[in-house]
Amino acid sequence: MHNNQVYIEGLIVNGRTRKYWHRRWFKIVCIVLITFLILAIISFSLVLGLVILAPNKAGTTTISIATETLITTTVVPSMITTSIKELITTSATVEFQSTMLISTIMSTTLESTTMPVSLTSAKLVSTTETAVMPSKESQTTGIQTSTVKITTTLKQSGKFQYFLLGWSYTARMNQGRQEHTTSVLSDGRVLVIGGSNRAAILRSVELYDPSTETWMVTANMNSARQNHAVSILNDGKVLVTGGQDSNPLNSVELYDPTTGTWTIVANMAYARSLHTSTLLANGKVLVTGGWDGNDVLNSTELYDPLTNTWTIRSTMNDARHSHTISTLSNGKMLVVGGKGINALNTAEVYDPSSEIWTNTNRMNYARYFHTASLLTDGKILVVAGWNGFQLFDGAELYDPTTGIWSNTGSLNIRRQYSATSLLTNGKVLVTGGYTGYMLDSAELYDPSTEIWTYVDHMNEARFFHAACVLNDGRVLITGGYGNIQSLNTAELFKL
């Protein structure tokens, strides 16, 4: 009986033990399952949170195009797909629609990463460019270098196409300036003269060396001036005429690049700013029009470097300032537009041999603050401008053989205070300007198709800047007004 009782109690104890372990294993399994479930929920939440936090509306990024493209973003996932629907100019940034797809969970977060992206094609029209590279660590903790794949798609938009062409910063000038001039010297260096900033009108002068992409300060002018005119003489010296300080100037200075010095030469008969000066085939310099502080001028003067004298010549048929002058292939001079009492659509031709001004056909639109370029076929391309009431996106062609003006393709953006450069391939580059806001856009005109095409934006919006074509074909853009200040930045454009 006693043994039976012990046996029964042993069965009960053993049963309780088995039940206890059964319950314990059940709890362990449940805890493990719950733990996995919690981890799964946390992981899913992190992924979902990253995707939700990724911008799915218009965002901004800065794209600086040089030898490589620099794209700066605030999140570095393992894969970023950016679809650019339409580029919109806003200061020095580009707005786009973007969607970021996070395909893996990263153990730590990159606060800021800058990734160089090498593009294999220069023409981006409805194409996709892909670059694979290691991401660079910046303000990270414990993250290893990973591979990031970036796919960027640019699509055709509207009536124009986007192309990716080479804008890159070069060294900054020593002085921020606007309404200055640039001249390419015989040795290939670029002379930047005068202008103004928000504080003062400038006497300072700088030299840019394209081979080293560096700036060097050279001797100051004797007089501060802006809205002056410049001509390079046959001996390589640089003649600077007029302009204005507190008032329009009649003073003239000569810069010698070999000595880096300025010499005061004979004064003009009339003070003038917003005028033109042109080197004639005989080595003399023709100065036309301008503003003397009270009146708009129709007077012209001729400077002889051999005798250091000015001679008043025959007057233009219309008084004008802010006009353009172009040397035609036959050696004659074409003066176009400008402002008298009102904006002018008149044009006149100067014959240096007879020293006579002759009216030619009028432009289709009156304008000033426009640009004019001599094309390789001998025609004159007049672009954009302002008539006192509205800005123009229109362009016109003048044919010297017929004296007839014809409308050609319109710019994509209306603008004034822009700069125009004739490229070595015969196309015309228009940069920056003002259209109610500052522009960083650039457009390229193809004379063979008479079509304007957007090229990549400059790094900075600017107007009242200067542009010149270097001996190697690159275009140098300097200064101008932008970002509520006179800029000291400079950019290079290369096809």
TrEMBL record:
Pfam families: Kelch_1 (PF01344), Kelch_KLHDC2_KLHL20_DRC7 (PF24681)
SMART domains linked: Kelch
Source taxon at top rank: Eukaryota
Matches recorded under SUPFAM superfamilies: Galactose oxidase, central domain
Keywords noted in UniProt: Kelch repeat, Membrane, Repeat, Transmembrane, Transmembrane helix
Keyword 4Fe-4S: no
Positions of transmembrane segments: 25-54
Gene3D superfamilies: Galactose oxidase/kelch, beta-propeller
Protein name per the record: Uncharacterized protein
